[in-house]
């Protein structure tokens, strides 16, 4: 529990840390490489839990009923296909509830009627850890995850891609966005969202950040769990999105989590938690148009 408390201190400290402190965190001066959140699960255990969750979901559907609280616990053990070599996404790793709960704190104070979007909701960990009174909306691409999420949580779900379903929200309409961003090349056909402002975007995580800034109200925050390459990648071909992003929002701060943070799902993935705040209306229009 002490290590969880240390993590909480780092995350909440982002709201008041000086630039030099944040840079020290990003430069690795604070070592948390031994931090592991959650029970370690090997591939065999994860496959067993995944199979049990999916079989139970099929039974619940066939009986046309809602799951019991005990059944919800079984459904919630589904951890995605990441690292299992299955037919699902090999990059499908779900967020620890400890990380999700602290990530909510990075918004600062939210209004009681705040409308927040999780555009890559997975199993609904941000729904399950949200502060009381928050009006959360969800988008999820995966058939399995969307179905399990809806069975476990009571939060509205839009099933489909963020590229398409995000247009069911007006620009400048959301009080916050929080999500574990998917990451991958967009593929030879490019993005499904053919809006001209996204021409040249080659990575899906870059699209998620840029589209999220359009949806946020002026002066509101987005909290994103992203692969470290979002900050680190120095490829000239991938630099355009950074300029676009900083024309839309200010970088409030971030913390690099150790590789072992997702080891409870069998993953060895390095990620950052980044906080961006959309510019005020006059600055946004001056910089972004």
Give a short summary of the structure.
With 289 residues, the protein is of the alpha/beta class. 37% of the residues lie in helices and 17% in strands. The protein is built from twelve helices and seven strands.
Account of the 3D structure:
By secondary structure, this protein is an alpha/beta fold. The protein is 37% helix and 17% strand. It is built from twelve helices and seven strands. It has a seven-stranded mixed sheet with strand order 3-2-1-4-5-7-6. Strand 2, helix 7 (143-152) and strand 3 form a beta-alpha-beta unit.
Q: What is the rounded distance between the termini?
A: 47 Å
Strand content: 15-25%
Q: How many individual helices? A: 12
Instruction: Indicate the multimeric state.
Output: single chain
- Classify the secondary structure makeup into a structural class: alpha/beta
Spell out the helices and strands N to C.
Answer: HHHHHEHEHEHEHEHHEEH
Average pLDDT confidence is 82
């Amino acid at each position: 529990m002490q290590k969880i408390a240390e993590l909480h201190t780092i995350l909440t400290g982002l709201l008041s840390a000086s630039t030099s402190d944040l840079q020290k965190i990003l430069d690795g001066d604070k070592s948390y490489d031994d931090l592991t959140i959650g029970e370690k699960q090997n591939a065999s255990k994860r496959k067993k839990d995944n199979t049990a969750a999916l079989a139970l979901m099929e039974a619940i559907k066939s009986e046309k009923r809602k799951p019991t609280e005990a059944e919800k616990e079984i459904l919630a053990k589904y951890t995605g296909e990441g690292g299992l070599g299955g037919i699902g996404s090999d990059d499908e790793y779900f967020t620890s509830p400890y990380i999700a709960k602290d990530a909510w704190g990075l918004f600062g104070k939210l209004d009681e009627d705040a409308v927040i979007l999780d555009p890559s909701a997975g199993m609904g960990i941000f729904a399950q850890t949200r502060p009381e009174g928050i009006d959360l909306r969800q988008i999820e691409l995966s058939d399995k995850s969307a179905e399990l999420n809806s069975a476990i949580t009571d939060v509205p779900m839009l099933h489909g891609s963020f590229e398409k379903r995000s247009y069911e929200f007006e620009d400048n309409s959301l009080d916050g966005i929080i999500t574990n961003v998917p990451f991958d090349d967009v593929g030879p056909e490019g993005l499904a969202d053919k809006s001209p402002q996204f021409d040249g975007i080659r990575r899906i995580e870059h699209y998620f950040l840029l589209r999220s800034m359009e949806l946020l109200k002026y002066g509101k925050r987005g909290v994103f769990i992203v692969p470290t390459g979002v900050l680190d990648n120095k490829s000239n071909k991938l630099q355009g999105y950074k300029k676009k992003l900083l024309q839309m929002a200010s970088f409030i701060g971030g913390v690099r989590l150790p590789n072992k943070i997702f080891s409870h799902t069998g993953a060895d993935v390095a990620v950052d938690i980044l906080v961006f705040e959309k510019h005020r209306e006059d600055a946004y229009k001056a910089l972004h148009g």
